[in-house]
Amino acid sequence: MAPGLSMPAEICSEDDEQFESSYQKGVKYLSDNNNNNGIITRVPTKYILPALDRPNSSEADHCTSTNLNLPVIDFAELQGPNRTQVIKSLAKACEEFGFFQLVNHSISRDVIGNMIEVSKSFFELSFDERAKYMSSDMYSPVRYGTSFNQSKDKVFCWRDFLKLSCNPMSNALSFWPSCPVDFREVAVDYSSQTKFLYLMLMEAILESLGLLEEPMGKLNDKQTWKDFEDGSQLMVVNCYPSCPEPDLTLGMPPHSDYGLLTLLLQDEVKGLQIQHQGKWLTVEPIPNCFVVNVGDHLEIFSNGKYQSVLHRVLVNSSKSRISIASLHSLPFNCMIRPSPKLVDEANPRRYKDTDFATFLEYVSSREPKSKNFLESRKLM
Ligand SMILES: O=C(O)CCC(=O)C(=O)O
Ligand SMILES: [Fe+2]
């Protein structure tokens, strides 16, 4: 064990099985159960990334101090007389950044504040209470876990998560945490309001791609608007405890999101970085706003016009951080394919069809450390 490393009393050697089973309990457990006046002073080897994968280690990291001002889309303006202009800005943001900040959205500060509060309270519960929701079943309506893919990752990342499936809500809800007592009520309200926001944004995105000229309802011979309304929604509550040596590890490794769009809510602590023009840039949190990003499915659906972008999460030594990602796509059993209207001789089809089951198979069988899944769907 590295000098000064303080670990739960039950843990004696980094190599023994007990140590490994302790890591499986997550980083919140690790931070809460140590014997050095409540302070963990070193990052255990399990979390130490190879030198080249660490933050601040590469060319691309040399400007991590530069904060990124993402394009800002005003949701209220999108609904008003300037809609055409806002849709142009939306298209530009999706093409140039794959990310934007959404301001003036319709979700109240209370709904947002309550969601962050119940998420914090959930991670403050005892480990035994949180552990009731641990599952390795990717189809489970609720799944508490740690790292990125804890059954596969050789090096763990400094994150615990609670994944909540919202489909169908009538079935999923009874599996969601019943503690804290208002968790379900707050999270259901939050999920239905983010779903509404997603649908409004998706409608604008389809318009920006020239796919809404026909009467609303039919997008092409395979898809209708109802597929979007009936689409899947997965909420991921991420908890990143403060970390004694944040330069050695990451809260989340570089990845892109699998769905059409992700709506991310973060607390006031920064940590999210996106890869832009070969550099890692930090996204400044704007209170009460959403960071929205293009997912792999939108890249496929738009035949590459809008591309998903790698992002990762840094941790820090003084503050823990909470974020809530709401990932939206078509229904789980629906094929995602390039929209036929965006494929012609000048723009040949660039991706194979895919569906959620293929994605799950992929993540279960490999370490999804990057946009590998999407790479596997590319035709050229
Ligand atoms: O915590 C963050 O800022 C990002 C989370 C994220 O990328 C995800 O949940 O996919
Ligand atoms: Fe993500």
Protein described:
The protein has a single domain, classed as Jelly Rolls (Sandwich), CATH 2.60.120. Helices cover 29% and strands 18% of the residues. It contains 12 helices and 13 strands. The strands form 2 sheets. Strands 2-3-11-8-13-6-5-4 form an 8-stranded mixed beta sheet. Strand 9 (272-276) and strand 10 (279-283) form a beta hairpin. 39% of the residues are buried. Residues 1-13 have low confidence and may be disordered. The structure holds 2-oxoglutaric acid and fe (ii) ion. Fe (ii) ion is lined by residues 255, 257, 311, 325.
Which features would summarize this protein structure in a list?
380 residues; alpha+beta; Jelly Rolls; eight-stranded mixed sheet; five-stranded mixed sheet; 29% helix; disordered N terminus; binds 2-oxoglutaric acid; binds fe (ii) ion; Plant_2OG-oxidoreductases
Secondary-structure map:
Blueprint: H1 17-23, H2 27-32, E1 67-68, E2 72-74, H3 75-78, H4 83-96, E3 99-103, H5 109-124, H6 127-131, E4 142-146, E5 160-165, H7 169-172, H8 183-208, H9 225-229, E6 232-240, E7 252-255, E8 261-266, E9 272-276, E10 279-283, E11 290-294, H10 296-301, E12 311-313, E13 321-329, H11 356-365, H12 372-377
Parallel strand pairs: 1-10, 2-3
Antiparallel strand pairs: 3-11, 4-5, 5-6, 6-13, 7-12, 8-11, 8-13, 9-10, 9-12
The protein binds 2-oxoglutaric acid and fe (ii) ion (FE2).
Number of domains: 1
Number of helices: 12
Any idea of the CATH class?
Mainly Beta
Report how far apart the termini are.
47 Å
Fraction of residues in H or I helices: 25-40%
User: Which percent range describes the beta-strand content?
Assistant: 15-25%
Describe the main β-sheet briefly.
8 strands, mixed
Spans of 5+ residues with little confidence (pLDDT < 50)? 1-13
CATH architectural category: Sandwich
Strand line-up in the sheet with most strands: 2-3-11-8-13-6-5-4
Protein name: Fe2OG dioxygenase domain-containing protein
Organism: Cinchona calisaya
GO molecular function: 2-oxoglutarate-dependent dioxygenase activity; metal ion binding
GO cellular component, one term: cytoplasm
